[in-house]
Design brief:
By secondary structure, the protein is α+β, with helices and mostly antiparallel strands. The protein is built from 9 helices and 5 strands, in the order H-E-E-H-H-H-H-H-H-E-E-E-H-H. The chain has a single domain (7-194), classed as Beta-Lactamase (2-Layer Sandwich), CATH 3.30.450.
Length: 195
């Protein structure tokens, strides 16, 4: 299972100006993101950085996820259905087995949803979020599977122009640029390595 993306994929991510984007694998590890994607999902990066940020772990093991996703129940249901789809595609995936075991032992909500055996993959829709820095965001997303990177999918998020979400996404982009500038100033030698 890929832990990183090829340089051309990262170049595409970085070229998406004003669009938060990330690449995730079948077990919902975020393996790459652009600056705005990292800013959008900054809550995912608060925890244990010894392993990749994982959307499922965040949803079921971090209480901040309940505030982050306004439709937490729907998001949780979609996450589990995606993991069931991944299990159907690759039932012997050790990373998936480990993740399902971890979530099953630590989250009653996950256990209940996993037992339902719903299987589906959502490739487009709307995510409603309450970002800790900029507030409410209603973002449309598109999930695109990367044919040259088996097992990876790129998710891109957009806001309807002229809406409060669009304004808040612009604020988030300014905040992300500020965070990047602060990182460059505090540690200029690691900036190129971190990207």
């Amino acid at each position: 299972m890929a832990a990183t993306v090829a340089a051309p994929v990262q170049a595409v991510l970085d070229g998406l100006v004003g669009v938060p984007a990330l690449v995730r694998n079948a077990v919902l590890d975020v393996v790459a993101a652009n600056d705005l994607g990292r800013a959008l999902y900054s809550e995912l990066y608060r925890g244990d950085q010894r392993r990749p940020a994982n959307i499922a772990r965040f949803a079921f093991l971090d209480p901040h996820s309940l505030d982050f996703w306004l439709d937490w129940e729907r998001v949780a249901d979609d996450i589990v259905a995606n993991l069931h789809a991944a299990a159907g595609a690759d039932p012997h995936n050790p990373a998936l087995t480990q993740l399902v075991g971890e979530l099953s032992t630590r989250s009653e909500q996950f256990r209940q949803l996993w037992a339902r055996h719903d299987v589906r993959v959502h490739t487009r829709g709307v995510k409603r979020m309450r970002h800790p820095v900029v507030g409410l965001l209603d973002l449309r997303f598109e999930l695109m599977h990367l044919s040259a990177e088996p097992g990876l999918a790129l998710a891109a998020y957009t806001a309807e122009p002229g809406t409060p979400s669009h304004d808040n996404l612009s604020l988030l982009a300014a905040w992300a640029a500020t965070q990047r500038t602060e990182t460059e100033v505090s540690d200029p030698l690691t900036t190129d390595v971190a990207r």
